[in-house]
Fold each of these.
Amino acid sequence: MSTPTSDTTPPVATAEPIPGSAPASPGPVIDAHWGPSARARRREQRAAVPPMQPTPPPPVVVSARGPRPEWWPQGEPWPPKTKRSAGQTFIRGVGCFFGGIIGLVVFAVAGAMLLSGASALGGWAMLSALLIIGLIFVYRTLQQTVAPLGSLMVAVDRIGQGDYAARVDVPAKGDVAKLVAGFNHMAARLEQDEIQRKALFADVAHEMRTPLAVVQGTTEGMLDGIYDRDDQRLETIIDSTAVMTRLLDDLRTLSLADSGGLTLHKEPTDLASMIDDLLTAWEPRAVESGVRISATVNLQGPIDLDPVRMRQVLDNLIANAVRHTPTGGDVQIDARLTPSAVQVSVSDTGSGIPAADLPHIFDRFWKSKDSGGSGLGLAIAKGVVVAHGGTISADSALGTGTIIRITLPREGGQTATSASGSAS
């Protein structure tokens, strides 16, 4: 049987109007969700969250090897058990194997000499010579073959634990030397990939921070009544989301290119018409910047390639050339056929690229100080060109300009004719 409960909430007093007085004005109506105090209310809610309690320090364990370090993982015994490395075990095993073989040979020779009745002095001399030769053979074998393999096993174990700086520095000869060189090359590639992976996370966070800050600031300003809720503010939010969408699309294209999964929709394409369309599209921008842009095309017939991807590549190269060319400069597009390839180049008379930066211009998120892009354009261009089976390279010098060359393989049977166009 349940016990009835009483409502202990006090009644709300209502003000009675005074006879003969004017009715009270309703006063300003404050929307609890959209009012100017929304930001303060959100701050109070965040402040009400209890802070995280600090983790108590681990107990100090003292042993013959000293106190337990602070960085030692929890749950792992201290001091650690001494464990012989795989390389040491391997070397000991090989040494014992060769030592056993030499011992068997020595004993076999000694037994044969005793049975044959040879002199004791001559027998001991022969046994000593065999023993010395065997020891020298074992030492040389361990030095040239087993020691590099033992160091290799240690380095493999370190890489398996995530230490990509591991290398094999023990000198070796023959096929063992090739094995060691191949392992060191693989380790260097793994280390470089790990560095690029960490840098990628930092660069993505940096590029996403600005548009996210614009979206957050504009939205909070509209909620707090600081900004008007008009189309101009909404367009700012849409532009910022478009920047993030374009960045994510570029990252996806790079990921597909690196993994070999970039799908190309090749079809016979009139590359000369594509270049002419790009020239027409960039003419107003070039004229506005005071830059002369022209093209010399020596092509005929269609070329088998992905028109969407290749247009993206050429558009990016022309955009970079126009952006970095001062007033009065020139941007030149050249395309010609060779017996086995199609060569396209985009050159400018801009400021040029320093020699120290030139090897890195096709890296992710590399960009010059005055660049307004995300730093992914040339990396995507390289991925698309390589997916076509071609190559892309750059030559530049400070004060003289830059030239980007693209070489694509083509099928035979095409002849070349000349055509040119310009805009200034």
Amino acid sequence: MVTRKIIAQKALPHWKAATAELKRQCVTLVSPYVSRSTVQMILDSRPQTAELLTTFSASNFAMGASDLTALRQLVESGVRVHSVPDLHAKIFLSARLATIGSQNMTQGGTRNIEATALFRSPQNIARISRMVADWRRVAQLVTLERIEAMERDIVGLKELFSKASEAARKVDAAIIHADTCPKRVQLSSPNEPASKTHEDWLKGVRTSLAKGLVSQSVRVDARVTQRESSRGRYTTLARIRSDDSFTRWYFDAGLVRLKRRARHLLYYEDSGALSWPAMNDSQLTQFATRLTVTRDLSSKLRSQIQVQFVQDPEALESHNVTIAVRRIKAALSASVKARWAPDQKLQFVGDLEREEKDDASNADEVGLGELMNWVKKHSEAFRLLVTSLLEKSFRFDRNKFGRTAAILGPLKSRVRIRLGRRAGKNRFVLLAKLLGPAG
């Protein structure tokens, strides 16, 4: 017969089961820190008698390690609460089960990595009971009067502990996590050429386009117009000739049909700006500049990647894309600037830099550090992933991507649209060139 068991998972289910079985028996809890979840567990099980051995310390209550309100609820419910000096043990004791382990009877104790030993033999339970009885003899009874006095006196202490905890967190971030969460990591390859000026870069793109990437036989002239809808006013590129189509294009290999209501990348040849418009035969509309996706970069790195297109003319002088990454549900992110153009490799501009936040938790710091180090180690895989997000068409979703059209040009301007195909791939990009006022 097994009378002792070591568990690495949570002990709370065993405590609940034991108290449920012994509704008319005595249950003793020993824990330096308690929270309301512990209170609820005891009250729900309704044992005949219950007692708690804990610490009654102003520092514990002020820093939030233990819940004074929970002790009040226990005492008001008839539970005898004792304060034991220098207590650090965590014990659950009933007639049929005893546990000794690391798990405090708090909400944090149910989340942390804990280990607990379970004892079911009468001999072991009796031995633990005698040990607890020795502690009870030196304990002091916690009364409602003592609780009320403590509630009055710790009000100012809570604010002091809060400031001290914040200062300690900053020290941790600066020292303990300095290596695990770098401020920046370099992504550009040392073999890449030095960054060109904006004009040289655009000239290189035009040279690449002239080498056959674009369908030269078909082009659609459009006009920048404004439309009204139930959601308000928005800007579109509407075809000028009624027999032109944004979804039917001819290459040497034949006719290419683009899906209606799909989003394809639109590249502005004059500035290098980008957007994702939704399309139909007669117009390009609902221009989006941001896309957010969730990806598993590894088995332990479920992350959120956001691609944001730049619209500011001055910023476009250096980059046209900003890529931000964060762990799922994390408060911290890191971002890097980049340049993209048709038939050219995505070029990172600068380093992947972490966001600075004063209220970030240690877990967020460590999580972001793991993510940044993964991106640094797999920079080429990360580059290909972002390129795929840029170039792959996807279904239009108004609520998810919104509308922005500030980069189209003045109203009534004429814009020439052509279609380009990525070399060796069945991926297409729309190319826009501003021609001037509409004729």
Amino acid sequence: MADIVVLQEERDRFGRIHQSRLQYAVEFDPAQGVHRSRLLPGQCLRRERRLTSVVALGGGRGLPMVLTGLRRHLPSECRITAVVTAADDGGSSGVLREQYGVLPPGDIRNCLLALARVAPEVSAALQVRFDGNGGPAHAVGNLLLTALDMVAADEVAAIRLAASLLNIEDVVLPAATARVHLVAELVDGRCVRGESAIPRGGAPIARLRIDPPDTAPTPGVLDALRTADMVVLGPGSLYTSILASLVVPGVAEAVAKARSARVYVCNLMTEPGETDGYGVAAHLEALTSHGLPLEALDYVIVNTSPIPPKAQARYAAQGAEPIRADFAPPAGRPLVVSADVLDAGPVIRHAADKLGAILCELAAGHPDR
């Protein structure tokens, strides 16, 4: 008699429906004169996706935290590609960019250190800052990347050389290699040019664009998005980190068309000058108006852990407040994942271990499209 196959549906902790295929061998018991079924070995387990590549986009402090969490929880053979904003024009990065014509190194440095496989003293040394002769102090890692950028064949080769020094097997790519600037169009009709100037614009942001407008993404970025098992956006400054990468022509379109699990990690707090008064819904509306509609996201991760009152008061003095969970999820995509992703320290930020574990579980259990 042929085997019996049973399809069984179950929900995981995120509410996703998974279908398990149970196969039973039917055997005749001559002693009892009846047929019995036996579940074949391994058939009761739901098969999860084998992850081979993950892409994370952004910059600032959020992207390195995501990379740290992913690298701790992903299998070693899974390659991470970090797509880093290349529009920074403030602080040490801005000075080095202006003086030497290099890509702003700060965000790239922090992503490399998040993925580094070297002694902690080496990572710490690359974060040591030296006097900038009246200007901002320069981190050793910034100076190293600047020097490599000046002698290597191109910017990507310079980053690859730095990665090899740090024993990194993953990939760090700037969103673009052209020397770009961000331009924010404000609701009052004014335009503000420059990443560091945008939060001081004095009016809400209506739209963000990149100059020059025909900037091409770095070779390898679109291919990485097309073949990834998961694409992660955020957390980080909505306009000057996340959208700064998405407004590079072709990037938002590639994310929207990706067949992978596409995850947006919502920030914990608003940012003065960028997202004043924003809730989760306003963050998603900003993504939509820049080419990434709701249906192009599969998951939105929202923190549920209460933020300590003392920390809230400290941030409120600087004009920041907790982001409201005011998004009413539609019947289809995206699925809102409400979870405790808050770090236990005095700084209000995501916990790399908590977020990394959730991201990997979402990707591994994401259904095929």
